Amino acid sequence: MQTRRRFLAIAAATLAAPGAVHAEGWRGTALGAEAAITLSGPRREVEAALAEARATLERMEALFSLHRPDSALSRLNATGRFDAPAPEFMAVIDLCAAAHAATGGRFDPTVQPLWRALAEQGDVPAAAARIGWERVARGAGLRLGPGQALTFNGIAQGYASDRVAEGLATRGFERALVNIGEMRALGGPWRIGIEDHARGLLGQATLTGGAIATSSPGALFLPGGASHILDPRSGGAVPPAWSSVSVEADSAALADALSTAFCLMERDEIAALRVAGLRRVRLVDAAGDLTTL
């Protein structure tokens, strides 16, 4: 559940639907992903909005990056405790708890020690024994269980897309597309190309408001052959069920988390879920067959 193990399989080229006005925007990187913001409006207003968006992304990096030793997440992982977490940090903790409950534990940020052990060929059984979201104590602060560490890379990109989009909406923008590894739309319609890592472009989704995220387990394998999307219940021993999973939802954070977890769930399990804000799921199996729920 991290950027290192996860490549978003949404095509880089995103087209506005016919009749859209001229758009301006920004491209860069954030939270380990290629990032882009597309919006329309008077140049001065667009420039001010993009400056604010970049400041938001810098704040997200300072909170959630695993590659910055001074980030809030890195400091929590190093010490096992966080006495005064920022509201946005706790918001993501709450989102993680909801996703963990909704998916029967398939979404679990405590897989970080296992990911590291597999990537660095460390003690995998010991790392797997540290998995368990229920050991994360939440109150005024945070306490991790012994040896635990968290990764938010299965949700932080989506959360960042949401925060940027919310900032644009507050400034009065009614039509914009934010892609911080996951897509969040204001207005629309927007045509989004959806790809499977092994089969290329599968088709297009039309997004009006809401968000879309795609996970591809086969996009990256760790030493020893484990997928970068790890099953927390089996210590990574059970391979993912799908070649790729695309989720449309009201928020990018929700789409991000569910697309990760659904890679580890069977079709009937996914179809039976009733999650507020979930709109549509596209599943691509190993044979390349597409199922839409």
Automatic annotation (TrEMBL):
This is FAD:protein FMN transferase. Keywords: FAD, Flavoprotein, Magnesium, Metal-binding, Signal, Transferase. It is an enzyme of class 2 (transferase). One of its GO terms (molecular function) is transferase activity. Its EC number is 2.7.1.180. PANTHER family: FAD:PROTEIN FMN TRANSFERASE (PTHR30040:SF2), THIAMINE BIOSYNTHESIS LIPOPROTEIN APBE (PTHR30040). Residues 1-23 form the signal peptide. The keyword Flavoprotein applies. It catalyses: L-threonyl-[protein] + FAD = FMN-L-threonyl-[protein] + AMP + H(+). Coiled coil: none annotated. Pfam families: ApbE. Its cofactor is Mg(2+). InterPro entries: ApbE (IPR024932), ApbE-like_sf (IPR003374), TAT_signal (IPR006311). It comes from the Bacteria.
